[in-house]
């Protein structure tokens, strides 16, 4: 079915990229419905106030409850079931659970995602508590670094989810080989890739890739993936299954 995505934000123009490229095509094919809403539509004071100073003091500003409550009630007013087929609230935050390919798969299986990107200091906790009574709330971090707002995280999460929707990726298989997908290459980073021309600035293609020997090619790719993972992501190494590949080696 079609994935519905709603985003409530004070920077609607930031989400324009969702109208182009991969996500844009998925929308055009009706696999994705994206609705971006300006949070300030639900403010009624002269300055369209959406945030205020934090109770308990401290730096920065916290986003106020009322605009969010009115905005989310309006977005959800399109009617929804409060079961597995209903919406989930996705709250980008550096203090959330890590966004992983596994979570992208989980979210891609839902029919409706409502994103609430906020400023770094966050949204008044009572907003999350209020909606957590009606739907799953995923507080998600896209990495251990601090952005000024959650909009970039919405682009990242939406793209990672959209490419998993059936038919959105031209070659349906390509996400199955993703570094983080299961199998012998599970939890390994992709190694180097090459294409024509066979020589470029005196740089040639590793012989094995031209050999047509699929077993050796697979083995070389696994070794290259292991090298790169050891170098860049030693934390992933203990998770990979060394025996998974040796079985295939024995078959060769
Ligand atoms: N991973 C991550 C999320 C964020 C923010 C979300 C909302 C404001 S800042 N920074 N880093």
Could you please describe the fold and organization of this structure?
The chain has nine helices and nine strands. By secondary structure, the protein is an alpha/beta fold. Helix 3 packs across helix 5 (151-162). The chain is elongated, with a radius of gyration of 22 Å. The two termini are 41 Å apart. It binds 3-thiophen-2-yl-1H-pyrazol-5-amine (J9N).
Number of helices: 9
Structural class: alpha/beta
Question: What is the approximate shape?
Answer: elongated
How much helix, percentage-wise, in residues?
25-40%
Structural features:
252 residues, alpha/beta, two-stranded antiparallel ribbon, binds 3-thiophen-2-yl-1H-pyrazol-5-amine, 9 strands, single chain, 9 helices, 5-stranded parallel sheet, elongated
Describe, in short, the structure shown.
The protein is of the alpha/beta class and 252 residues long. The chain contains 9 helices and 9 strands.
Task: Give the SSE map.
Elements: E1 3-9, H1 21-28, E2 32-38, E3 51-52, E4 62-63, H2 65-76, E5 87-98, H3 101-108, E6 112-115, H4 125-132, E7 137-141, H5 151-162, E8 199-200, E9 203-204, H6 207-210, H7 214-232, H8 234-237, H9 242-251
Parallel strand pairs: 1-2, 1-6, 5-6, 5-7
Antiparallel strand pairs: 3-4, 8-9
Helix pairs in contact: 3-5
The chain binds 3-thiophen-2-yl-1H-pyrazol-5-amine (J9N).
Residues 92-94, 117-120, 141-143, 145-147, 149-150, 153 line the site of 3-thiophen-2-yl-1H-pyrazol-5-amine.
């Amino acid at each position: 079915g079609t994935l519905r995505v709603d985003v409530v934000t004070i920077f609607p123009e930031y989400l324009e990229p969702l109208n182009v490229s991969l996500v844009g095509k998925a929308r055009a094919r009706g696999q994705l419905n994206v609705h971006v809403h300006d949070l300030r539509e639900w403010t009624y004071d002269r300055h369209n106030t959406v945030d205020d100073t934090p109770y308990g003091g401290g730096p920065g500003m916290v986003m106020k409850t009322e605009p969010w409550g009115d905005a989310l009630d309006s977005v959800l007013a399109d009617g929804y079931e409060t079961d597995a087929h209903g919406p989930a609230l996705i709250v980008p935050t550096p203090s959330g659970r890590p966004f992983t390919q596994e979570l992208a798969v989980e979210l891609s299986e839902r029919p409706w995602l409502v994103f609430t990107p906020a400023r770094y200091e966050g949204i008044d906790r009572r907003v999350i508590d209020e909606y957590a009574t009606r739907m799953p709330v995923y507080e998600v971090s896209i990495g251990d670094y601090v952005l000024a707002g959650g909009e970039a995280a919405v682009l990242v999460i939406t793209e990672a989810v959209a490419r998993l929707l059936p038919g959105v990726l031209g070659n349906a298989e390509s996400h199955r080989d993703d570094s983080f997908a299961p199998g012998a290459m599970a939890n390994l980073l992709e190694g180097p890739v090459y294409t024509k021309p066979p020589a470029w600035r005196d740089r040639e293609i590793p012989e094995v890739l031209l050999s047509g020997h699929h077993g050796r090619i697979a083995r070389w790719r696994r070794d290259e993936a292991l090298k790169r993972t050891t170098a860049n992501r030693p934390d992933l190494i203990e998770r990979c299954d060394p025996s998974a590949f040796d079985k295939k080696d024995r078959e060769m």
